[in-house]
Amino acid sequence: MKFEKLFDSKDHKLFKITGEEVTVTPEMAYSVKWSDIEGREEEYNEEFLSKLRQSLKALEEQNKYVFIEGIYDKDATPGQYNNTMKHTSRRIKDCANVIGFALPPQIAQDKDVADDFIQKLSEKHPQYVYFAKTPCNEQVILY
Fold this sequence. Notes:
This protein is an alpha/beta fold and 143 residues long.
């Protein structure tokens, strides 16, 4: 399922495709703990992901746009985190109100890891925009 791109980034800010700037609010960050999604490496909690999808679909019915803010709460490699978020994006692929994902500091601090994160999610979700708390590259939106 492919969605049209509704948002873009410019100068670390969020814009509608029409060019109108959008203020990023704290309510747009939908926090999800990595440990809730993945127990052991590549052992995903599909029940949790199903409930996540249901919650996001309920927000979609209210016309609320969100981005997924993965909480890096495990002692594992950044590559494993990236794979988990890629898996998560597949499970919520039909949620049109999910406009992207945030890069946690552990991912954003390393250019190669951040690029890998964006590349992995962009493969199937070219409509996504990416958020971070630091300007780790040109395309992230600060929040």
